[in-house]
Design goal:
CATH architecture of the largest domain: Orthogonal Bundle
Number of domains: 2
Shape: elongated
Largest sheet: 3 strands, antiparallel
Strand content: 5-15%
Radius of gyration: 19 Å
CATH topology of the largest domain: Arc Repressor Mutant, subunit A
């Protein structure tokens, strides 16, 4: 399922919420984007059509909740990126990223821990 950058802003809000949200609540959370209720409704309609979000009637309004699990979305997007740019190989991806980005001592320690865990599990 392809989620646009704008739609992902909405999905992040829905994933963080502990309950279904109305268009007005989403718009308030998106105040930096300066979207109107109509704009948010348009995006919600697309997300419902894609099967990423469920809508339920609550009086005169709809409440929206995510159907797409964030971890599944992140995995699919990450895999797609690595498949497209690095022929599905994670090693070259990590090497490329680390050569272009200064990793902190904490990030390096996290990578070492991950490698040790993966070695131990195999």
């Amino acid at each position: 399922m392809k989620i646009t950058a704008a739609e992902s802003l909405i999905m992040e809000i829905l994933w963080r919420a502990d309950r279904p949200l109305a268009v007005e609540e989403l718009r308030d959370e998106l105040r930096d984007a300066n979207w109107t209720d109509g704009t948010v409704r348009s995006f919600m309609s697309r997300l419902v059509h894609k099967g990423a979000v469920a809508a339920s009637k609550d009086g005169k309004r709809f409440l929206y909740r995510p159907l797409l699990v964030r971890a599944d979305y992140v995995h699919a997007e990450s895999k797609g990126l690595i498949d497209r740019l690095f022929d599905g190989q994670i090693g070259p991806f990590v090497a490329h990223f680390s050569e272009r980005q200064n990793l902190s001592a904490e990030e390096l320690a996290q990578l070492r821990d991950l490698i040790e865990r993966l070695d131990h599990d195999q």
